[in-house]
Amino acid sequence: MPKRTDIQSIMIIGAGPIIIGQACEFDYSGTQACKALKEEGYRVILVNSNPATIMTDPGLADATYVEPITPEVVARIIEKEKPDAVLPTMGGQTALNTALALAEDGTLDRLGVKLIGAKQEAIAKAEDRDQFRTAMMKIGLDMPISGVAHSLDEAWKVLEKVKLPCIIRPSFTLGGTGGGIAYNREEFETIVGSGLDASPTTEVLVEESIVGWKEYEMEVVRDKADNCIIICSIENVDPMGVHTGDSITVAPALTLTDKEYQVMRNASLAVLREIGVETGGSNVQFAVNPENGRLIIIEMNPRVSRSSALASKATGFPIAKIAAKLAVGYTLDELDNDITGSTPASFEPTIDYVVTKIPRFTFEKFQGAEAKLGTAMKSVGEAMAVGRTFQESLQKALRSLETGLTGLNETSIGDDKQDILNVLAQSTPDRLLNIAQAFRTGLSLEEIQGASKFEPWFLAQIEALVQAEEAVRSKGLPDHKGGLLTLKKMGFSDDRLAELAGRQAVDVADLRERLDIAPVYKRIDTCAGEFTSKTPYLYSTFEGNEWDPAICEADPSDRKKVVILGGGPNRIGQGIEFDYCCVHAAYALEEAGYETIMVNCNPETVSTDYDTSDRLYFEPLTVEDTLAIIRKEQSKGTLHGVIVQFGGQTPLKLAAGLEAAGVPILGTSPDAIDLAEDRERFQQLLHKLDLIQPQNGIARSVEEAFKAATDIGYPVVVRPSYVLGGRAMEIVRDDEALDRYMREAVQVSGDNPVLIDGYLQNAIEVDVDCLCDGKDVYVAGIMEHIEEAGIHSGDSACALPPYTLSEAVIADIRRQSEALAIALNVVGLMNVQFAVKNDTVYILEVNPRASRTVPFVAKSINYPIAKIAARIMAGESLASFGLEEAKMDHVTVKEAVFPFARFPGVDVVLGPEMRSTGEVMGIDKDFASAFLKSQMAAGVVLPTEGKVFVSVKDLDKPLVKDVAEKLVTLGFDLVSTSGTAAYFSDNGIPVEKVNKVMEGRPNIVDLMKNGEITLVINTTEGAQALKDSYDIRHTALVMKTPYSTTIAGARASVMAIEKIKTGTLEVNPLQSYS
Amino acid sequence: MSKSINISDLHKERTATAVLVLGDGTVFHGFGIGATGETIGEVCFNTSMTGYQESLTDPSFAGQLITFTFPHIGNVGFNDEDIETAGSAASGLIIRADITDPANWRAAGPLNDWLLARNLTGIAGLDTRRLTHVIRETGAPNGVIAYHPDGVFDLDALRKKAAEWPGLEGMDLAKEVSCKESYIWTETRWAMQGGFGEVAEPKRHIVAVDYGVKQNILRCLASLGCSITVVPATASFEEIKSHNPDGIFLANGPGDPAATGEYAVPVIRECIESGIPTFGICLGHQMLALAVGAETMKMQQGHRGANQPVKDLTTGKVEITSQNHGFVVKRESLPDGVSETHKSLFDGVVEGLELKDKPVFSVQYHPEASPGPQDSYYLFERFVNMVDQHA
């Protein structure tokens, strides 16, 4: 069946900002969908508020709307663009929910727009618990005993048949937010409450607990001719009870017989048919009772998902791309398998390796949050690794995580058996390491199985690894090929073997060379070698044995090539923005005629799409792994160089090791990067350039820290060198806090010193991104932060161009940036952070590499600066690109998005440690409109009436005055606690006084809980005040009341509120702005 | 405790306890699994990720050494249900990783115990992907697996043995794997709850000619309300007829269709002529083609896996099938009166046939699955419907 000709234009809805449970996998799927539909000649209209995505690059769609993904805004875009169809299955739950809302309110019918990929009824059937259950019963599939409740009373009734322990799952939430496992009645009441609250339909499912069962997932694709195929089966190493997104998973399923697998396969196909997924990809999740094989269906998603991205990368079958083509009417047999180039897409990929995915967590950034895993997703990223065996892929995945692991490193769980069993019974981010440690302390597999409920097969594999480790620990490295090769085939890194043997990694590498042990590269080919593969999608493995060679399928070309090192797993501080830069480097260098070679281990990304670069190595980003790839590529053709400056801190850390090995590094020298990080050398440079920075000092001990702080004067900003995302960065106001900090921070920074800066109160922070070729400089973007200096730049909203800075200050910032770029001999990108106080410009930080703001700037000024930077790094001159100073007729605002709702107990007040997971962009003709859009896109619903609670620290009282007056003018009532209320009264501003939390009832929190407060403006200083006001911010979070913890943020919000009350928002595509 | 790694070995030089020697002299070293000794056959690969026990007991694999492309084989141990014949089937196996302890609620023990019990010899620990490439490039070679715990091998003699093995072309293996006496079959398909069942009140009677029948074919027929009499490969049409069949089934089996066809084809011709509904699978399909005057040939690269796409040309639908064939019916040799009903979407070869004026059809692949997807079960229903219409 050919493609549909009754449709000419299609709208794709993206997933919006990166949040926990919805990350860059939807950029990967959306980008594939855009490309696939454009290729078919459709006019593609895209809406996505996330500027850091590849899909929002102006060339990928015909009209790109970087606008808030709300039903109202999307409806307006539909009215303007009049697409024939909407494809809602590429943008996660956000897109699905938005499309469902537009279908339910009649907008789509009214405007004559069809839903393709998933129909309204199918979405509702899959997402609504009652409907889903009925559907499953109809096709004879078992589900846990359960019931739906819309109130606590209903929930108690359901519990009568379900019994404790039970699982509570809220409907229509991401990553199971608000759900959990209840073991007693008290927990039940709490979790049902939070679940009802989290569900947009105030609905929870209370179900039989199947904690400890085995969990599986099937990735299914169906076309409109009812051809159904399984792309991949996935088995969770973690038993049921841990959210799939937080589980360690392997592909394919390893512990099913064919009979059981086929039961699951048949069930998956039956589910798709019954739900009515007409075309596209879906995933179906199952639980299996390990005692008797009883199969239970957990859920299904009628759209591409995180696991479909994983399945695509694990097999080489591009689910999203194929799903997009199926949505416009193709059938599977009409589409090609890109990898083989000789077979159709209508087959089931079969693999001859094992894929392991391990999620990455950042509990350390959320003080007060318990590092425990459950049914609500908490991880912020993941690493995937490929090996010929489970052990090899597991150990590769562990080192891919970049959490400092070289393998199954030791943990401290003590040696008391009962304590250890208690630890094993908890699902924590370190569970696998704890299991290995338990084996080391002598616990048996049966004991560990009993406590952890892990499948014994996986435990036996870990036990064998631990035994091999012990052998190396006691007898050293084997000095013959068979022994060492066996260890390498088990996935041990040189680093881990060196640790175990008490040697250096280089000793292991030397020994390997002497014994002729090197990795070979095999192709991910969808067919286990049955057909030749034309696509170089590769992974390393140690193969063969001491008698026979293994074959290497890398087959490097004789071209001039560039290797781009990616950013590894997403984490807070290093996410999609850096992947965007790596992808642009690949695109740009391909255009410039180089062969591009990508190395990365993040399955969510566009960079790990085999389509992005000429060659893709899905490998851990360590010196050992990357050097082996580089050596292989150098064996033929010419390696022009390696790009390490685009993937964030990850590849930068490898630069020294690669340089030492004689590998050419493109662009700014690693030494210049080091200079910018090295406080002493950097100070000398600033001195030479006559530029100033806040007073500062360096400390390698607590004593030195006290001395520096005394010299500078509190408050000070302290941070370790060489970290991204402000890890462990803090504003310290007294000796006690400094003492506590130093004990943590010195550990964080290892050998590197702690930096201590004077904190500029109420200064304006500015971010600058520029391009330089060592001769000329192009200042691409000057961004004024909305929150004052001291808030991590990744957590601040910012505006481009600056909205309050004077021309003179801007000119000064430009001059300083240019001087720095030249002085550092930057070749490529550079980011500078400034603070402006009383018109004096201070330098806070310089990073001669790609920064988090690069995609935002590129989209704001409409120049592909990452691409240009890559070509400069490869040797072209900046002048050759003929860049002109951007003359913007619009304003863009970037706003950060936070995961606080997933970490109960964490204070939401912003600080120098970055905690946002993603960002959105608002674009419009003026600042207020752009800011308003950024808030809408971030999910903040600003009020237009009601009571505003204002409580600010003394220093801020004069600053909040005009904000308060404006609010009154706009018709709001003000409510304040004593200090602020007195200040307002003294200044003639009408205000109602309310009790502080400590002052008796009813107090401000009671008011908030009763829904009487529509906006909170709350700034505090000092540990005690912060503690006292914690309940206010926490309640705002729970009640979803918009809040501002800075005056500048409050001021911007009020401007946005005024905009809502006075005008209408216009929507315009990126392509219409110049 | 996992027995896969003997840690003391890490610091000692190892001895290869098994070798695979191909006819061209290529040697792969590894470690023996299953029974010690030597086994010879055509080296093929199978890309299915599940169902190694079913594959090893598939009589169609007689005379073959199976290279499993999936590295972990043995994870789910063995059980007494996942078996396709009690008789002989595959001649040996070649795997990448060591056999582990089983992880499955149905496992009765580790795979190695079962290999020993069935006297099957195999080799583990070699680069199976390299071997797969060899098979892909050169066509399935003949080879010998030798498992000698002392590690002493006469490689020259093994090479000679492999080179001199006549190969599957022209080989009538069906006779060896077929039952010698006819028997009645009543067991139905496996279910998660309750395992296998028994057919209650069968409504039709099928005679299945056993060229190496997989038991799951018989179970599929029984599940649709058939009682089945299985007769030997060499059964005459009179013998078949004597069981009063409502339908005749021509089974799968190993070897060269031309060789087995020498005695089977005349019988099949009589079946066709009789007007009794007839259904053939795999070898049965190939010999049915020979019976109507078409030709078969050996493929450069056989189809062996559980992910093979086949298009039903009558409906346009794609089914994912389980396949295991190294011979194929030549499309250009199909006579008038025979139409092609199914074709492979991998390489376009003929995968199904039907006769225009007789109730006769056949497929090259395995609708009974086991192992593999069950998309093609409808063919059994089609056959039973055909039988009912002729009743």
What topology emerges from the helices and strands here?
The complex is a heterodimer of chains A (1074) and B (391).
Chain A: E1 9-13, H1 25-39, E2 43-47, E3 63-65, H2 71-81, E4 85-87, H3 92-104, H4 107-110, E5 114-115, H5 120-127, H6 129-138, E6 146-149, H7 152-162, E7 166-170, E8 180-182, H8 185-198, E9 204-208, E10 214-222, E11 228-236, E12 249-251, H9 258-275, E13 280-288, E14 295-301, H10 306-315, H11 319-327, E15 354-360, E16 381-387, H12 390-400, H13 417-425, H14 431-440, H15 445-452, H16 456-475, H17 481-489, H18 494-501, H19 505-514, E17 520-523, E18 537-541, E19 560-565, H20 576-591, E20 595-600, E21 615-618, H21 623-634, E22 638-643, H22 649-660, H23 670-677, H24 679-689, E23 696-699, H25 702-712, E24 716-720, E25 730-732, H26 735-749, E26 754-758, E27 764-773, E28 777-788, E29 798-800, H27 807-823, E30 827-837, E31 840-847, H28 854-861, H29 865-873, E32 891-897, E33 918-924, H30 927-937, E34 947-951, H31 957-969, E35 973-976, H32 978-986, E36 992-993, H33 1004-1009, E37 1013-1018, H34 1023-1028, H35 1030-1039, E38 1043-1044, H36 1047-1062
Parallel strand pairs in A: 1-2, 1-4, 2-3, 4-5, 18-21, 19-20, 19-22, 20-21, 34-35, 34-37, 35-36, 37-38
Antiparallel strand pairs in A: 6-9, 7-8, 7-9, 10-11, 10-13, 11-12, 12-15, 13-14, 15-16, 17-18, 23-26, 24-25, 24-26, 27-28, 27-30, 28-29, 29-32, 30-31, 32-33
Helix pairs in contact in A: 1-11, 5-6, 13-14, 13-15, 14-16, 15-16, 16-18, 18-19, 20-29, 25-26, 30-36, 31-36
Chain B: E1 18-22, E2 27-34, E3 37-46, H1 52-56, E4 64-68, E5 92-95, H2 111-117, E6 121-124, H3 128-138, E7 142-147, H4 155-164, H5 174-177, E8 183-185, E9 204-210, H6 215-223, E10 226-232, H7 237-242, E11 247-250, H8 257-274, E12 278-281, H9 283-291, E13 296-312, E14 318-329, E15 338-344, E16 350-355, E17 360-363, H10 378-390
